[in-house]
Write a structure and sequence with these properties.
9-stranded mixed beta sheet; alpha/beta
Length: about 300
């Protein structure tokens, strides 16, 4: 088995919670370096302030995981590809679709693997829901994705700046499930985006979708102001009257009220297993569909203003 020497660029919460322990447990990867502007150190890996210094000092490095905020991800990923590295992109993969298209083309030209990771797709319940819907039409769909931003993004000011995605940072997880399971393409028909008056990214969003076929109602509600229990649910009714409920961010599937699939989340374990397969096959996997729905929401959305946000 090939063991890939991997470096991580960006040492934030998702890196600490997911990437570091998952890489440590996967024999296909050996974490040898990290790049952190703050100089954060990780046991067993060399620390560099800038990715270019990491590439120069460690030419044996063949893979990087880019876990920075999306606003700077394009330049960092392009630099890595130019240095001959395969690249894994944390979600969302870029700040814009044009940036992602450029990275995909550049990775192909360089003969490098580019992998866009949508962690919520890596749930057994999501895969089974996709298979169940493959030969049916969706009559109704309701996404409810509501959580407490203070719990999940403490002190992360970048999410409130332009290009920081705001509530779409978690909301795009729901959209990644939607684009994975729907049997036909989905379009944003209308959107209302609610911005705190002191922020450049929304704290809530209400979306209505359309498809090329008949349907009654396809909606999504995202909100970062929910306290207490957190809600990450998708309810679907097919043309035949079957109801599917994906709960806990896609970890649990009920069909007509009966438990069908439930698995302890192992999203990032599956992501790195898939990455090892892509590296073995020298094949990229670039999925822009969730990002396109976010871009469309901003493009046609009506802007609403609410009270200032203060952490």
């Amino acid at each position: 088995m090939t063991v890939h020497k991997i470096g991580i660029i960006g040492l934030g919460k998702i890196t600490e919670d997911q990437h570091l322990p998952v890489i440590a447990a996967n024999p296909a990867f050996d974490l040898v370096a990290v790049s952190s502007q703050r100089g954060i150190k990780v046991d067993g890996a060399r620390t560099f302030r800038a990715p270019a210094d990491m590439y120069e000092a460690m030419p044996e490095l063949d893979v990087v995981a880019v876990c920075t905020p999306p606003q700077v991800r394009h330049a960092i990923a392009r630099e890595a590809l130019a240095a001959g590295k395969h690249v894994l992109l944390e979600k969302p993969p870029a700040a814009t679709i044009s940036e992602l298209d450029d990275l995909a083309a550049f990775a192909a030209a360089q003969g490098r693997v580019l992998f866009t990771t949508w962690h919520s797709q890596y749930n057994a319940a999501v895969a089974h829901a996709r298979d169940l819907l493959a030969h049916h039409s969706v009559k109704r769909l309701a996404i409810t994705w509501k959580e407490d931003v203070r719990r999940w993004h403490p002190g992360q000011k970048w999410i409130w700046t332009a290009g920081g995605f705001g509530v779409f940072d978690p909301g795009i997880n729901a959209l990644s499930i939607l684009t994975e399971i729907m049997p036909t393409p989905v379009f944003v028909r209308s959107a209302e985006l609610t911005f705190p008056e002191n922020c450049d990214a929304p704290i809530a969003a209400s979306l209505a979708f359309a498809t090329n076929g008949p349907h009654d109602s396809l909606t999504a509600e995202f909100d970062w102001r929910q306290t207490g229990p957190q809600t990450w649910d998708i309810v679907i009714e097919t043309d035949e009257g079957t109801e599917l409920r994906l709960a806990n961010g896609g970890a649990r599937l009920e069909v007509n009220g009966e438990l069908d699939v439930e698995r302890k989340p192992a999203e990032y374990e599956d992501i790195y297993h898939r990455f090892a397969q892509l590296l073995r096959d020298n094949r990229s996997l670039v999925d822009s569909a969730p990002l396109r729905l976010v871009a469309d929401s901003f493009l046609i959305g009506r802007r609403l203003t609410t009270e200032p946000f203060h952490e």
